[in-house]
Amino acid sequence: MKKIVLFALILIAFFGCKKEKAVSQQGKIKNDIQPVTAALMENAVLYEANIRQYSPEGTFNAFTSDIPKLKKMNVKILWLMPVHEIGVKNRKAKEDLSVEQITDSLEKAKYLGNPYAVKNYRSLNKDFGTPEDFKKLIKTAHQNGIYVILDWVANHTAWDHPWITQHPDFYRHDAKGQMVSPFDWTDVAELDYSNPNLRKAMLEEMKYWLTTYNIDGFRCDVAAEVPTDFWNSARAELNKIKPVFLLAEAEKEELSQKAFDVQYGWEAHYIFNGIAQGKKTVKDWDKYAFKRDSLHLGNAVRMNFTSNHAENSWNGTEYERMGDAVEVFAAMTYMVPGMPLIYNGQEYDSDKRLKLFEKDTIAHSLSKMFSVYEKLGKLKMQNEALNGGKKPGAYKRLATSSDDKILAFERTKNNKKIIFVANLNKENSSFTVETEGTFTDYMTQQEITLAQGETLHFKPWEYKIWIAK
Predict the structure, then answer these.
(1) pLDDT single digits (tens) 334-374
(2) How far, CA to CA in Å, does 318 sit from each of 188, 321, 366, 389?
(3) Residue 27 carries which DSSP code?
(4) Taking every annotated instance into account, which residue ranges of this chain make up the domain Glycosyl hydrolase family 13 catalytic (predicted)?
(5) Where along the chain do its domains lie?
(6) Is residue 307 within 8 Å of residue 339, measured between CB atoms?
(7) Sequence-separated (6 or more) residues with CB below 8 Å from residue 329
(8) For 35-84+121-155+191-392, which CATH superfamily applies?
């Protein structure tokens, strides 16, 4: 009997040590998904979620139940807008109005604050749920093969963040010794990265979310306003805990040399809007594409998008900005090199500007775009020609008889070839394109054969994705 008990104790100790080793290797947590790699970025699709606005409940649990739908669209990286407790002091009701200026108590209560005014980097917004609910969301995402990145606001804090009183030296001050806001963002105070103690503190706050909740990285708000050398050192330190994915809200090449995996494709986005509004033409896209390729750094990857939370709230929905061209530019975000983004609600054809400072809700009624994103995501996942990370499929512009209105290009990699042709114009167009052969029309799955010099007829904003046989 003593031998049996002794043997059982040995087994418990053995497996306990084995488990402890697995946990310690990941910085106090056991990894439940394969580590982030550069290969992930080649065909990844990003999804941005605003927990407050995603569902009527505005909770982690309500969002978690929909994670399998993200998997259907082949989403690989889930970006959560800030989930922290929001500051109360100087809280904004609208861009030019603070809650403190409102006298009516009922009116005042509806303003929940700016998600980017963080009151405590280690807190969770109680309106969203509990720590256990948040852990369940992350675990469910991982079980569906989806990585989770958290929106990180490193440039500023809310005015009632504990550091305001405990560490006033963490903040920038004006000539009169007063703390200052960045830009005209009066609900936040700007941090001072010349202080090494702030840098240490900020890094510890970021580590907390890796070790406590097992998140997979960060989307870094106004990343160019924070010194690049901070991001470089932060990336190195975070990677000691686990490999992380970092997305910069910036378009600054030096940020990609050591720190960030992906940056915003702002310039491409504005060209999309300009073409849709008749202010730009395909030639403007060609200039950008040439510049992008000629200036491309090995680590620079762009996030392609037709909307995000800031564009939606302040500049209008994609339907306001692009009208009938929404689908063709959504397709382009998948077809050109880079990583496409879906902002929550786009898959439901939402044409609503979501309020940023108060409760609003996305209508979840399936129409057209969910199936479009599903098809585009499947193609990007399965066809190497659309690889868009550090080893992207080649991009070759194909000549057409109407190069200011018709965009045609091919993507190729490892004997895979895809041709994209689009009428980026509000008029019917007849044209020829420099290609021939037999293809599968991906969106209809019909076979087509094109002869060299054959005249094609496209409706306004019509596009085709042809897969080479």
Answers:
(1) 999 999 999 999 999 999 999 999 999 999 999 999 999 99
(2) 29, 5, 17, 25
(3) T
(4) 35-380
(5) 35-84+121-155+191-392, 406-468
(6) no
(7) 272, 275, 276, 306, 318, 322
(8) Glycosidases (3.20.20.80)
- Prediction pTM value: 0.93
Query: Residue 218 pLDDT > 60, yes or no?
Result: yes
**Is residue 146 within 8 Å of 120, Cβ to Cβ?**
no
- Which two structure tokens, joined as six digits, stand for 391? 């080893």
218 to 22, 75, 159, 215: CA distances (angstroms): 23, 16, 23, 8
d(CA 380, CA 74): 9
Residue 329 to residue 312: CA distance in whole angstroms: 16
Q: Which CATH class is domain 406-468?
A: mainly beta
* Residue-wise pLDDT tens digits, 363-404: 999 999 999 999 999 999 999 999 999 999 999 999 999 999
How far is it, in rounded angstroms, from Cα 387 to Cα 42? 5
Q: Which residues pair with 447 in a beta bridge?
A: 440
